[in-house]
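Our example copied in:
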Amino acid sequence: HPMEDRLVCLNIADGTARWTKACSVLYLAGADGDNLFAATPKTIVALNMDDGAQSWETPIGEGKLPSGRGLLHQGHYYLPTSDGQLNKISLKTGEIVKSAMMDSPLGNLAFDGERLVSYDGARVTSFYIAEALKARVAARLDKNPEDPWALARKGELALAEGDAEGALRWLGESLAHEKTPETRQSMVDVTLRLLRDDAQRHLVWGEKALALADRPPERIDLLQRIAQAYADRGDQQRAMGYCLQLVDELEQLHTSTPPKFIDLQAGHQVRIERWLQGFMARLRKQAADTSKPED
């Protein structure tokens, strides 16, 4: 009863009220075992179907709302939220056992046997559930250990589990057998993520990704981080070489392209051209200082 912020359970035989629960319900999420699940503006709540007693309540998060109707599946509730997260909630305890950040908020969810399907009123998108995808990947690799589709999906699974370096290895194997645009892009995206965390450690992957990247913003990002990493190693010559490539890349951009900014310390930003000018000047000075004869 949304006008009075209460949930009423009716006896199906005669329509009489069995119990009433005071709560503001956006929608009923479904039922499983002894519990009924409901989404409120701030929480997901489990109520006992016999008497309406609360079994558990899980906050969605400060400032967040459900962005669509979630999905009950194999002991979990998949809840999309307005900040772009997809939360996997245990039906037994209400614990959020896993959370993934999507590119944009999802809508109403359904399940087609292997994948979650989202409809937000404007578009339909689908995503594999990890358990189903793992089984399919294993079956395909048993038949063909060089299956590029399965190798790429194995890379995506590794990334979802937090193993970015493992993801790059599997994506690289996939690309060795078939260079699809999707796998190339995944390789570049993962490499950029690693370079932002630790460019020194992942410099080799950065150079490999540079050979795959074909979008100017990504190439500029890669070149800037590779140049900085070589400079930090004290290799001014290689750093300058990548700076010169960066100059060429910036010159090829159309004049109508919005200026690119990079982040500095303390939350400050600077245009890439301004950063490059100062960075190359420092490299020249370091090279000159190194070549000066000792007294």
In short: The chain has a mean pLDDT of 88. The first strand starts at residue 6 and ends at 10.
